[in-house]
Prior knowledge:
Blueprint: H1 28-53, E1 56-57, H2 60-63, E2 69-70, H3 74-80, H4 83-116, H5 119-134, H6 137-147, H7 154-162, H8 177-204, H9 209-217, H10 222-233, H11 235-250, H12 254-261, H13 266-269, H14 272-278, H15 283-313
Antiparallel strand pairs: 1-2
GO biological process, one term: transmembrane transport
Subcellular location: Cell membrane
Domain ABC transmembrane type-1: 89-304
Amino acid sequence: xxxxxxxxxxxxxxxxxxxxxxxxxxxxxxxxxxxxxxxxxxxxxxxxxxxxxxxxxxxxxxxxxxxxxxxxxxxxxxxxxxxxxxxxxxxxxxxxxxxxxxxxxxxxxxxxxxxxxxxxxxxxxxxxxxxxxxxxxxxxxxxxxxxxxxxxxxxxxxxxxxxxxxxxxxxxxxxxxxxxxxxxxxxxxxxxxxxxxxxxxxxxxxxxxxxxxxxxxxxxxxxxxxxxxxxxxxxxxxxxxxxxxxxxxxxxxxxxxxxxxxxxxxxxxxxxxxxxxxxxxxxxxxxxxxxxxxxxxxxxxxxxxxxxxxxxxx
Length: 314
């Protein structure tokens, strides 16, 4: 018989359990798949549909079942050879940059103010900004039309009766294109400032107090600390906010459309949004102009997108 190995009393042979099958971990990209599908369906299909229509003659007849006629680049050619379209594009870009710069300056100023004032003043300012931001656009437009009304507007009354500028009595603000865009700028900036102010204020709260105190001990003035430390630290926030402002101000529509309906000359006050809307019976032309607007938006924001991508790589 074969000898068996002696066993040591008091010891037990450990039981080896079979290895468990590990389930594959769902990575971050897997978690993004459902949201990506929803975004692709909700945004991708209309974008592709718009792009296809821009190469077709698509009008009211096609809405009732008539097959669209493929015209190729004809819609783009008609638009890009129209001097009025280029005038509207230049006007829209100028309006966009003026509004974006003014909004950023005022929003940053209010954010710094919220950081430096007391609790009661800060809460009052924040509530005021929230009310301005939360008011529906059409309700806000009604109030602003009353303020700038020719006959009974508060603005004309203050300028003529309080400040003594007699020429502003019963002045029509929306007849002349220059004053029209001044009113539009006031309204658009007023609606956009709260978002910038709250975003920048949130960024200011992330600046380490120790860094600021160390710079102060080294002799840096308040201005030097702001431009040399605070601004570089919150630059990612400023870049994103400015990018969003450029996009929003370039495609502004409601404010311009409502003011035009109040009696402004449409041709002299059109921006890209209202010009696209004017092609409501020519969907092919509207789709082509909307595509041009999309390309223009990407071109204007390309620099900021590249800067944000570089910051992500660092």
